[in-house]
Design a protein that fits this description.
EC number: 4.2.1.47
CATH superfamily of the largest domain: NAD(P)-binding Rossmann-like Domain
Bound molecules: NADPH dihydro-nicotinamide-adenine-dinucleotide phosphate, guanosine-5'-diphosphate-rhamnose
CATH class of the largest domain: Alpha Beta
Shape: globular
Largest sheet: 7 strands, parallel
Number of helices: 11
Strand order of the largest sheet: 3-2-1-4-5-6-11
Cofactor: NADP(+)
Family: Belongs to the NAD(P)-dependent epimerase/dehydratase family. GDP-mannose 4,6-dehydratase subfamily.
Distance between the termini: 44 Å
Structural class: alpha/beta
Catalytic activity: GDP-alpha-D-mannose = GDP-4-dehydro-alpha-D-rhamnose + H2O
Protein name: GDP-mannose 4,6-dehydratase
CATH topology of the largest domain: Rossmann fold
């Protein structure tokens, strides 16, 4: 039985990946950091049925900022595959906590790689680094692919740039099987509530039911290439099953603005919105003329990534990548889930 270790197992991708690997028959070990309240809602169901119940899924306390915990867990579990998904993953928050973001996102990757090497597991253990389209930042080429130059635009992206290169460096210096998945934005009904897609579907569902009056957003002109997390975690696994380690872009090749996302989510709720104004003065009104969406400059970022669009040709050719979920299906699934949640909890 193969063993996998997932950092960030309580997050969106960690939950989808853990489920995917358990279904493949893996023994899955997850690292979670200590929190004052339970925060395992995304993975609790994995303990309930087989195979989770039979001990195939285990959690360990650890933190990306603490080498000793990472080393101990690696030594105890001796995994075949390590998926480094843990990160302070919010771009806007990284401007407020730049040093912590560097510690967990940049140094965290180094701590894991160095522990694998130090423990003499470099030949056995394959390593996946959760790299990101944010590396492209101020884009130098459209669409972005593996060879597009990076130009990070936030402390988060700069930290991830270090993690990207240290992964490449350990591959080249120590012959480790280590790869970067350069994943473009991917969402789901269990996306964190402060990322823009989930913020939109959650708020519009509540506005529809009358439990919230308005949604405040930042830059509505930002464009992203949005896919479904469920599709993307399969590619993380595939990257570790190849003959040689390489880096891959994973994206849909379709781009929409934040405004498009708002309009599509409203449509799924049978709300018709009319947008008026520009920049900080933009609003969207419902059929009755009431303002339901408003731009609030507090959500503008000190430096913005205006546009991202991925070219996943390499993954398509070498990994057989084909995203299963369309943009419309993604929005519908998120809206449906948030409507149910709003009905249940108000
Ligand atoms: P989430 O924010 O949902 O999850 C992040 C996970 O990391 C959580 O489990 C969180 O724990 C954990 N974590 C944060 N800091 C630490 C720390 N210091 N020590 C241990 N664990 C920590 O992110 P996603 O699931 O969306 O993303 C997974 C990874 O992929 C991240 O590295 C992200 O930067 C990257 N990425 C994401 C993309 C996306 O569109 N989703 C696109 C490209 C890359 P807790 O639950 O306690 O907060
Ligand atoms: P991003 O995702 O920064 O791309 O990082 P996010 O959903 O936070 O922002 C996308 C775009 O929407 C604009 N925006 C807003 N964003 C948020 N969060 N809240 C708002 O109210 C709002 N209004 C407009 C943003 O300015 C931005 O342009 C995500 C994270 O998952 C990263 O970890 C990952 O690396 C990248 O995706 C790929």
């Amino acid at each position: 039985m193969k063993k996998a270790l997932i950092t960030g197992v309580t997050g969106q991708d960690g939950a989808y990946l853990a489920e995917f690997l358990l279904n493949k028959g893996y023994q899955v070990h997850g690292i979670k950091r200590r929190t004052s309240l339970f925060n395992t809602a995304r993975i609790d169901h994995l303990f309930e049925g087989e195979p989770g119940k039979s001990g195939q899924f285990q959690l360990h306390h650890g933190d990306m900022t603490d080498s000793s915990s990472l080393t101990h867990i690696l030594q105890k579990t001796r995994p075949d595959e390590v998926y480094n998904l843990a990160a302070q993953s919010h771009v806007a928050v990284s401007f407020e906590e730049p040093e912590y973001t560097a510690n967990s996102d940049a140094m965290g990757a180094l701590r894991l790689l160095e522990a694998i090497r130090f423990l003499g597991m470099g030949e056995k253990t394959r390593f996946y680094q959760a790299s990101t389209s944010e590396l492209y930042g101020l884009v130098q080429e459209t669409p972005q692919r593996e060879t597009t130059p990076f130009y990070p635009r936030s402390p988060y992206a700069v930290a991830k740039l270090y993690a990207y290169w240290i992964t490449v460096n350990y591959r080249e210096a120590y012959d480790m099987y280590a790869c970067n998945g350069i994943l473009f934005n991917h969402e789901s009904p269990i996306r964190g509530e402060t990322f823009v897609t989930r913020k939109i579907t959650r708020a519009l569902a509540r506005i529809k039911l009358g439990t919230q009056s308005e949604l405040a957003l930042g830059n509505m002109d930002a464009k992203r290439d949005w896919g479904h997390a469920r599709d993307y975690v399969q590619m993380m696994w595939l990257m570790l099953q190849q003959d040689k380690p390489e880096d891959y872009v994973i994206a849909t090749g379709q781009q929409y603005s934040v405004r498009d996302f708002v309009a599509r989510a409203a449509e799924a709720l049978e709300m018709k919105l009319t947008f008026e104004g520009t920049g900080a003065d933009e609003v969207a009104r419902d059929e009755t003329g009431r303002v339901v969406v408003r731009v609030d400059p507090q959500y503008f970022r000190p430096a913005e990534v205006e546009t991202l669009l991925g070219d996943a040709s390499k993954a398509r050719e070498q990994l057989g990548w084909e995203p299963e979920t369309s943009f419309d299906q993604l929005v519908d699934e998120m809206v449906k889930s948030d409507l149910e949640e709003a009905r249940r909890y108000g």
